[in-house]
């Protein structure tokens, strides 16, 4: 394995020379497009990927118009979608406490809000400011009566007792984290090991493909492992450009993550992916993608001791901004969903046609992906031609009552999905 900090400079490449002479002969993706491996979905054959710069790299940001009263996303037949909370300020992530309270990271407002259900109908009846004056809060967890919170620049912990409606004090900083960088890769997620002996911290890159030099990528583009008191830090896995959602596979206990891949190689490169995370594993960024595909922006500047990167397990489409990841380890949903994984796709900005903007489902069997992906929650795109959307899904969470919550930071709402009885 080559050194985790490359002591070389990135050769600057201009993309204007990559013009429409090499247009990719494929129709644009739409929400109705078949999700197959030729389009970067499923168990992708690395040899079938599009060529770099087959299309121009575009900036195509969606316009969020919000949801109309009574309007909801669409789920498959047999499911019910309802509004869980509204009028939030960029709700990105959430965490269910042992008593059923839901804590939501409102990252734009630099606060956590707590929602409490008083009558047992699964919907909140009251809410509280759980903690404010934070710094882009995101991931959370509870361990040994300590509430852990990941700001963009640090991991904090606070004492917590069952039923608390707020966190007291400023918390104890147990870990400094690198902050800032490309395209707001500011999210810092947290996941406890099943035995509560370790905490895993996901940290996105400070750049698209290392264009600012690899010194600024120290402790970034990977997953860190720490002890509950913040000591014992190690790089658990790296070469993961922007890992966000993490969860434990209920069938084999492996850690999985959802990863945002790189930009500016064209409409159909590089597919975002979900993958099991191997300890000490290297997944390619920024030098390669999907195994031994060398990023052309690094072709003349590869590390001398480069070794082959791990091929991700499963593609989930190019530029889909796949953020959320949650295994369904309950029994209320139909059997085909059990032990499978749901992925929150925030949606593209670097494609000619919008891609993502949905919750995707991937079936699993014996701990491995076992079939093609399926759309699960759709209807976020209101006008594909004019790039208008109602909202943008982020995190997907399975609660103890077997329901699903989906944060939507575009619509500033949270959706609740249940299976009809």
TrEMBL record:
<dbReference type="InterPro" id="IPR054539">
    <property type="entry name" value="Beta-prop_PDH"/>
</dbReference>
<dbReference type="Pfam" id="PF22807">
    <property type="entry name" value="TrAA12"/>
</dbReference>
<feature type="domain" description="Pyrroloquinoline quinone-dependent pyranose dehydrogenase beta-propeller">
    <location>
        <begin position="74"/>
        <end position="266"/>
    </location>
</feature>
<dbReference type="InterPro" id="IPR011042">
    <property type="entry name" value="6-blade_b-propeller_TolB-like"/>
</dbReference>
<dbReference type="InterPro" id="IPR011041">
    <property type="entry name" value="Quinoprot_gluc/sorb_DH_b-prop"/>
</dbReference>
<feature type="domain" description="Pyrroloquinoline quinone-dependent pyranose dehydrogenase beta-propeller">
    <location>
        <begin position="312"/>
        <end position="417"/>
    </location>
</feature>
<protein>
    <submittedName>
        <fullName>Glucose/sorbosone dehydrogenase</fullName>
    </submittedName>
</protein>
């Amino acid at each position: 394995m080559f050194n985790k900090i490359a002591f070389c400079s990135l050769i600057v490449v201009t993309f204007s020379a990559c013009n429409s002479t090499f247009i990719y002969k494929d129709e644009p993706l739409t929400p109705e497009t078949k999700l197959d491996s030729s389009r970067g979905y499923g168990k992708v054959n690395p040899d079938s990927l599009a060529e770099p710069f087959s299309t121009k790299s575009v900036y195509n940001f969606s316009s969020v118009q919000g949801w109309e009263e009574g309007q909801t996303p669409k789920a498959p037949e047999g499911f019910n979608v309802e509004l869980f909370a509204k009028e939030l300020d960029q709700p990105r992530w959430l965490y269910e406490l042992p008593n059923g309270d839901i804590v939501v990271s409102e990252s734009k407002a630099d606060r956590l809000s707590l929602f409490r259900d008083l009558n047992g109908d699964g919907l909140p009846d009251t809410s509280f400011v759980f903690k404010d004056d934070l710094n882009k809060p995101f991931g959370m967890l509870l361990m040994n009566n300590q509430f852990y919170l990941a700001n963009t620049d640090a991991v904090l912990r606070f004492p917590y007792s069952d039923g608390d409606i707020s966190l007291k004090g400023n918390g104890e900083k147990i870990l400094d984290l690198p902050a800032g960088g490309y395209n707001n890769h500011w999210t810092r997620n947290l996941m406890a090991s099943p035995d509560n002996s370790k905490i895993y911290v996901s940290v996105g890159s400070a750049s698209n493909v290392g264009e600012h030099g690899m010194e600024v990528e120290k402790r970034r583009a990977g997953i860190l492992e720490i002890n509950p008191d913040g000591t014992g830090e190690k790089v658990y896995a790296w070469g993961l450009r922007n890992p966000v959602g993490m969860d434990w596979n209920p069938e084999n206990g492996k850690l999985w993550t959802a990863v945002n891949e790189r930009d500016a190689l064209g409409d159909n490169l590089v597919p975002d992916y979900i993958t099991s995370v191997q300890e000490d594993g290297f997944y390619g960024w920024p030098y390669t993608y999907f195994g031994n595909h060398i990023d052309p922006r690094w072709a003349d500047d590869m590390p001398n001791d480069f070794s082959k990167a791990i091929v991700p397990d499963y593609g989930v489409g190019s530029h889909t901004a796949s953020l959320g990841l949650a295994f369904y380890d309950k029994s209320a949903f139909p059997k085909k969903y059990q032990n499978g994984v749901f992925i929150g796709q925030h949606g593209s900005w670097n494609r000619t046609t919008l891609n993502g903007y949905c919750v995707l489902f991937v079936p699993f069997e014996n701990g491995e992906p076992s079939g093609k992906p399926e759309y699960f929650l759709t209807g976020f795109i209101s006008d594909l031609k004019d790039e208008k959307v109602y909202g943008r899904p982020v995190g997907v969470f399975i609660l103890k009552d077997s329901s699903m919550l989906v944060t939507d930071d575009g619509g500033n709402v949270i959706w609740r999905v249940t299976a009809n009885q």
